[in-house]
Amino acid sequence: MQPKLAVSQVYKVFGDAAPAALDLLRRGRSKQEILAETGATVGVRDASFDVQEGEIFVVMGLSGSGKSTLVRMLNGLIPPTSGQILIDGEDIARADAARLRRIRREKISMIFQHFALFPHWTVAENVAYGLKITGVPHDERRARALDVLEQVGLAAWADSLPSDLSGGMQQRVGLARGLAAEPDILLMDEPFGALDPLIRREMQMELLTLQRTLKKTIVFITHDLNEALMLGSRIAIMKDGQIVQIGTAQEIVTAPADDYVAAFVADIDRGRVFTADDVSSDATTIQLRQTSVRDALRMMERGGANALYVLDGDRVAGVVTYRDLAASEMDTAITASLQGSLITDFPTADTTTCLSDLYSDAGSGLPIAVTDERDRLLAVVEPADVLAHLSGDATPQEQQEQTYAQPR
Amino acid sequence: MLSPADLATLPFDDWVNTFVRGWLVPNFRPFFRATQVPISAVLDWLDTLFRWLPMLVTTALFALASWKWAGRGMAIFTVLGFAFIDMIGLWPETMTTLAMVVTAVLFCAVIGIPAGIVSARSNLFWRILRPVLDVMQTIPSFVYLVPIVMLFGVGMAPGIIATIVFALPPIVRLTNLGIRNVRGDLIEAAEAFGSTGWQMLWDLQLPLAMRTIMAGLNQTLMLAMSMVVISALIGAGGLGLIVNTGLGRLDVGGATAGGVGIVILAIVLDRITQGLAEQNNVSRMSLRQTLSNVFRLRGTAALAGVEKAG
Ligand SMILES: Nc1ncnc2c1ncn2[C@@H]1O[C@H](COP(=O)(O)OP(=O)(O)O)[C@@H](O)[C@H]1O
Ligand SMILES: [Mg+2]
Fold this sequence. Notes:
By secondary structure, chain A is of the alpha/beta class. Chain A has 20 helices and 16 strands. Chain A folds into two domains: 53-80 and 94-271, P-loop containing nucleotide triphosphate hydrolases (Rossmann fold), CATH 3.40.50; 277-404, CBS-domain (Roll), CATH 3.10.580.10. In chain A, the strands form four sheets. Chain A has a six-stranded mixed beta sheet with strand order 6-7-8-3-9-10, with helices on both faces. In chain A, strands 2-1-4-5 form a four-stranded antiparallel beta sheet, sandwiched between helices. In chain A, α1 runs antiparallel to α2 and α18 crosses α19. The longest helix of chain A has 18 residues, at 197-214. Chain A is globular. The two termini of chain A are 16 Å apart. In chain B, 85% of the residues lie in helices and 0% in strands. Chain B is globular, with a radius of gyration of 22 Å. By secondary structure, chain B is mostly helical. Chain B has 14 helices and no strands. In chain B, α3 packs across α13 and α5 (91-121) runs antiparallel to α10 (197-226). Chain B starts with a helix and ends with a helix. Classes of the chains: A alpha/beta, B mainly alpha. The A-B interface holds A 75, 77, 100-105, 108-110, 112, 114, 116, 118-120, 129-130, 132-134, 177, 181, 187 and B 183, 185-186, 188-196, 199, 203-204, 207-208. The complex binds adenosine-5'-diphosphate (ADP) and magnesium ion. Residues 67-68, 190 of chain A line the site of magnesium ion.
């Protein structure tokens, strides 16, 4: 499939000496050396990546690492010094002014760190801005603006001025303005960076919720690794204008490309990075009506398991533990059935449940059932694995295998 | 002592004479004459209108405007001030002066706002225009009265042209400043959504720069008021003529009466345009407060203009 957005070998050098600086860059000189030698500032250096339709692609890096420059090249606000940026196969870097305007109106919109709402217009007028400049009649664009405001929960504020709203609400307006023009691609430059932590978390959840229905292609900039890991389908890490690693959250945490990334990853919240999917193992199951207590015990002894999930047809009936079964076998040697020892309030999760949410269930000692939306058992998570991953003790090799074995 | 003049003397005045008399005037006089036509037309129209309007109606209109934009106190001041002007017999001259000032400000706005917009968008244009504005503001206005008379003759319209030259810079400067000061991220947002240059100007830059532009208009108006007496030297009428006549005859009373008329008109126009720029809700300010404000803060500017003129 053609990627929605394809960036290849893009460079941006600020300053008059750009051609000379570009030459030095290609010969591998550092940003600092080039600044000292030519006076030109390197913004972005040899960036290449693809963004697939419907993906949240996060660009993470410290302040000054070139994130804003990179994202502004994607909609032509900053023209690249060299390289190619294809949106649906059309090169932004080579588009003339009119074409660029058309692409911005139809395909791409942007959400800013400091909201950049127009202070002299009401919330609804702000949201309708993209429609106004394309000449949509007043009533129609207002109706559309109210629709989108409804989606972000601000319909009641349509006729207020932005200055009457809190920071979080203003950014919802910013988001609504970005969505109103129905673009395919959303560029978000540290959109939650100016919000306080609680509101930021709320906005992150809301973005994920919206994205589930909207399925936009999103390029999301942040300097906060936790935010990156939480939102990103894939993450690019930038340093001094260069992308040092691109990968999924798990790949970046388990196999940092260099010391720079490793230092970042050292103090992240692992519980939010890994999901049940990452730590689960294949489930050995038995059928409720076809397996005797004795057979079950024997299976557990062979597999070294403490508990087994019991299926009734397709459905998960419950879980039995070795201890319970062994006790019941002693009591009523021959008539013992699985039914008597079945624990039916077993812990469950789906593949995307975070480890931090599995943590309390892991305390019960029972393996956690990973089920799909129709309650079918996909895999199980052993409590010990949860704890091992949270503490970062699991051996990297084992984790890498898991990452590659389970394509997302 | 040796001085450069011992070595050579430059006939600078002759050069200017040759340039203006020998080249500029014969070649371009018809062109300059033609530029007066729109100015005269607007002036005649306004002058006729203001003289035709009954004094009470005009006063009522100004009092209303004062009340709306400058407060109750200013409205009372306007009524009293205009009544005073009428009673000292200077009403028709005041209306002529008003017509002249309004005409000059109108043309300053028509020329200055677009020039300011272009300046804000083109650094090159601004680099060229800026020294020109500096020169316009620093040359004493008496200096360009002579070439203006030679090119345009004497009369109302040349007087207004001199006024325009003198009063134009602030509106250009402040339009430029206002537009350049619009927050960069707003401009970026407009661009990111694909707006054209014109759309950005109308939707964003002009509305957000409006306060600053209005402040420029207010300054331009005040400078135009201060040219009232000087432009009367080259044939413009109104209150300036009264002051000049008084000056010529050493008639202290007449000159003072004209001067007071100018001050009253200046204060009223200043406060109304200032209020327009700020759009504050000031309608409850009392006369005493207003007067103390006028003479403490802005009085200096208004009076400075008149002082220069008188
Ligand atoms: N217009 C510009 N002119 C010169 N240098 C710039 C310009 N914009 C950004 N830079 C430089 O480019 C580098 C990357 O900046 P930026 O993309 O804003 O980083 P980030 O968004 O990651 O904080 C910085 O060193 C910055 O100083
Ligand atoms: Mg930035």
